[in-house]
Amino acid sequence: MSIRDLRVEENDEAKFAQICVIGAGFAGLVASLRLAKQGYSVVLLESGYQTLEPDIDELNRADTSSTSYAGAMTGRLRGLGGTSRRWGGRLLPLTPHDTGPRPHLSLDGWPFPIHELDIYTPEIEDLFGLDNSAFEGDVLDGIDPNSVIPRCDPDIHIRLPKWPNFRRRNIGQRLQRQITRSSALQLYLGATVCGLGVDPATGRLTSVEARSLSGRKLTVNADQFLISAGTIETTRLLLILDQQSQNRAFERCNALGHYFQDHIRLEVGRLLPTDDDRVTRLFGYDYWGSTRRKLYFQLSDQAQDANAVASAYAEVRLHISDGTPLDRLRALVRDFQRHEIQHSLRKLLYLLVDRDLLTNLGLWRALTQQTFLPPAAELRLDVRIEQIPVYDNQITLSQKRDRFGVPLPKLEWAPGETELRTFLRTVQCLSNFWIRAGIEPLCPVIWNPGVLEGTLSLSDSVDTSHPSGTTRMGTMPAESVVNADLQCHAIPNIWIASASAFPTSGSANPTFTIIQLALRAADGIVRTMLSGG
């Protein structure tokens, strides 16, 4: 059995492995298994457990006294599977425009062509049980066979993300059998990394110390270390390492902790369908076997360049009111995804009483291969934009400490004028597209006050719990934390598999790209180990 719980170990332990991985979410699990399958001994440390526990969630607390950023608590989950236990499931790669040079925003782009990550796409699709169809282009014909949506609009580009079945979203459950069968991988739950040891002579990380809430300690010595603990925690660990080295570890790096960014969401209007069936077929989820698809309205490359704005996208969202049958169904699905089946019996009984809803859902799915939208369903139009990297948006160490005595991360974050301009121009392009495409008669939008007039305020916008940027990739050690292979410039046996390495966040949620980067980092570690590095 390769899954152990540190809090029930009888004595403090010391372990040696060729590779130590910190964080058992999307990135940590896929990278650990990839390395173990190559024959390397791997110790994987995870702060949480297989079920959610309030004491562990408290370790996500951050010092947000100077910011409105909410994702520190709402967007993070410690435990086997990490945020995959509440992940909505959207998978979509970033585009070459997202990651390339953008002179209109003074952005240099990523240090490698994004198409290099395409080699990992089939592996990710297989992991989640998805088909291998494209994310855009002719695939739109399957959802919109009557060509209601223009294929070559100058302002709005249509993409089609993929969603796996909810049973396949929890990566911890998905991979648990492989973990337990691996002879090269040892996973410790309840093991929160609190200290890191650097050899002053070589500048390499030699060990990490993990602790359990019960007071047990585990010291792991390794040759290579992969940190995959999410953007905020990954950055905090490197800042702690720097602090413990009297700020010598990253003294030549000006980027660590800076350029903190997220996607920002704003609800811009409500939809009033004039034909429920046609609207359901157009905007509902479309099922292709086990793969679910849905329209995604992205601001075109041309429109971004012409308007000097960042990436943005819009989607039609089903608004579910609290206490409704749909809300109970959603809660039930989330319980199964989090592996909290014991909480689901009462919710299931409530649903069985509402047989009409269940019948309609099943019949519509069987007849149309789409999700049924009840006639009374509220459809909302959301716009999400890319926040450009700004040096003063940052993560630092607070004077406040957690229960282990470790400094909390302190977040300083705010959207700026570029984000406001991106929202305004995206809404204008979207409004024009809605009319130009002929969608307006089928499903008019009741725009929120100030949206079309250009007087909206970002005070109503929210972060989307997609933090990134604070250990950014780059070619210059003074201006970036890791290189194109996710290897730390300053401490070459540290590797990062996290959205914290994103130089820019682009037009898609980060999950797909995070997994791609985790596999890339694992391959980089293998090359380094083979070369004796």
Structure notes:
By secondary structure, the chain is α+β, with helices and mostly antiparallel strands. Helices cover 28% and strands 21% of the residues. It contains 14 helices and 20 strands. It has helices at 26-37, 54-57, 71-74, 96-99, 121-127, 171-181, 231-244, 276-283, 301-307, 325-337, 345-353, 355-368, 417-436, 511-530, and strands spanning 3-5, 13-22, 42-45, 156-159, 162-164, 185-189, 192-198, 205-211, 217-227, 263-271, 286-288, 291-293, 296-299, 312-319, 378-386, 394-401, 407-412, 445-447, 462-463, 494-496. Strands 1, 2, 3, 6, 7, 8, 9 and 20 form an eight-stranded mixed beta sheet that branches. α1 packs parallel to α6 (171-181) and α10 (325-337) runs antiparallel to α11 (345-353). It is globular and about 70 Å long.
Silhouette: globular
Radius of gyration of CA atoms, rounded to a whole number: 23 Å
Q: What level of helicity do the residues show? A: 25-40%
Largest sheet: 8 strands, mixed
Low-pLDDT windows of residues = 345-355, 363-369
| Straight-line N-to-C gap | 31 Å
The strand count comes to 20
Average predicted confidence as pLDDT: 89
Structural class: alpha+beta
Please identify the oligomeric state. Answer: single chain
Quickly count the helices.
14
Q: Report the portion of residues in β strands.
A: 15-25%
